[in-house]
Design goal:
204 residues; 8-stranded antiparallel beta sheet; single chain; Beta-galactosidase, Chain A, domain 5; mainly beta
């Protein structure tokens, strides 16, 4: 059963081995973090890197509106919405307490003439990243955040076909980025483009 601790500016969902926190204690948007339980202690694994109101291309989706729906005693889902510059974000984040997993399904809608650079989620992390076994010629499908018992599954996605994860540096430490990194080709017949990326964080 999920434990849910909710206040005006914080939501914390906890299963047997995984904890997800959304927090709006500072700035104009919700940030989130994932912790894993090891030897009865909680250890921070991923901490979202948020942009500012002045950034049109933030390092993570700009989320200003959050709604929580409890689907059953073991499952809850956040519906998230926000905007930065011309980018409009929406996301569904489902916590499956039975399997100690959080599924992030994110979309960014923006004018085609403004499609450039990266459309990503960024995290400060405290681990080393390793890919799982990958068949020859296939896209990576799993990352392991060692030494923690955490894996990130990257389901196949057309929008993520050109670079689905990478590491970078940040003043707070090393950063893991997930999403779309290459510029998209110009699109005719439509003034808007929706970019989608998805990843599942779970205890293994």
């Amino acid at each position: 059963m999920l434990e849910i601790d909710q206040t005006t500016d914080r939501y914390r969902l906890t299963s047997a081995s995984l904890r997800l926190t959304f927090d709006r204690s500072g700035g104009d948007r919700w940030r989130h973090a994932i912790d894993v339980r090891i030897d009865n202690d909680w250890r921070r694994v991923l901490d979202s890197v948020e942009g500012t109101a002045a950034e049109a291309d933030p390092p993570s989706p700009a989320i200003q509106d959050l709604r929580l729906e409890v689907l059953n005693p073991d499952t809850a889902e956040f519906q998230l919405f926000g905007q930065a510059g011309r980018r409009v974000y929406s996301a569904a984040v489902r916590f499956d307490g039975t399997h100690d997993a959080v599924d992030f399904d994110i979309c960014c809608r923006l004018p085609t003439q403004h499609i450039s650079g990266s459309v990503i989620s960024s995290y400060v992390w405290t681990s080393d990243c390793r890919e799982g076994p990958v068949p020859e010629g296939a896209q990576p499908t799993r990352l392991y955040l060692l030494p923690h018992p955490i894996e990130i599954e990257l389901p196949p996605s057309t929008d993520q076909s050109s670079g689905r994860w990478r590491t970078a540096t940040h003043p707070s430490g090393p950063v893991l980025q997930l999403g779309r990194f290459a510029d998209l080709p110009a699109t005719t017949g439509s003034s808007l483009k929706t970019i989608r990326w998805r990843y599942v964080v779970r205890v293994r």
